[in-house]
Amino acid sequence: MSRDAIIDQGYEAYTDQDHETWRLLFERQAAMLPGRAAPEFVDGLDALGVDAGGIPNFERLSDRLEDATGWRIVAVQGLISDEVFFDLLSRRRFPVTNWIRKPEQLDYLQEPDCFHDCFGHVPMLFNPVFADYMAAYGRGGLKALRLGALKNLARLYWYTVEFGLIATPEGLRIYGAGIVSSKGESIFALDDPAPNRLAFDLMRIMQTDYIIDHFQQTYFVIDSYDQLFEATRPDFSPYYDELKGKPAISPDTVLETDRRV
Ligand code: PHE
Ligand code: FE
Hints:
Helix content is about 50%, strand content about 10%. It has helices at about 15-30, 40-50, 60-70, 80-90, 115-125, 130-145, 150-160, 175-180, 185-190, 200-205, 225-230, 235-245, and strands at about 5, 70-75, 95, 165-170, 170-175, 195-200, 220.
């Protein structure tokens, strides 16, 4: 099923400009992330770091990643179906868009490109617990599709994998790919007084809508990747039943039961 979605990276087709765009984005983000990104992300970035000179070759990067956690990355043209996406994750294959944004799009892009997918997502896949979480998420996704609960599960991905924060002894850190790959949001998510930063709560998150066209109004904070993995280990079928009767919570709402971090 996923075979049709996977393409050759087309490494030879990248222009000097494409590599220059990667380098610019990479250096800009890498310089900003110490003290902001989770230590696990920074560690993973070191593994990717040899590719600061240009767009990584997915095969070579996959060989290193596979040694660490059994994951490989595969090239895709752009958005793929939910079913293919979940099937890939469940088999420890992470789809990465092969094209990179144009120089005039450094700060804003409507759909994920190679920089978001690779720089944003791949470092955390070097972390064993997070790597297991992502594979379990893929299996959970296939089940959610069957149960008609995709909306609930997609919110979990959004508020953890894409926009998650983690509490460390040194303070809050970012690990979500949507934040770490964005210059503006890397600052906003931690420093701006506007957004809510709430303690991770699985059922609460699966009820919460999200916005895709500007910085988040609410971030959820985990204590550890183990907490995330343990909270999501149970069978979600009864959770989905329970959530079916409940109205969605809007992205900016803070409930009495929420704990601000
Ligand atoms: N345990 C979840 C289920 O039964 C699967 C899952 C794992 C979902 C990890 C998200 C993250 O559906
Ligand atoms: Fe993403």
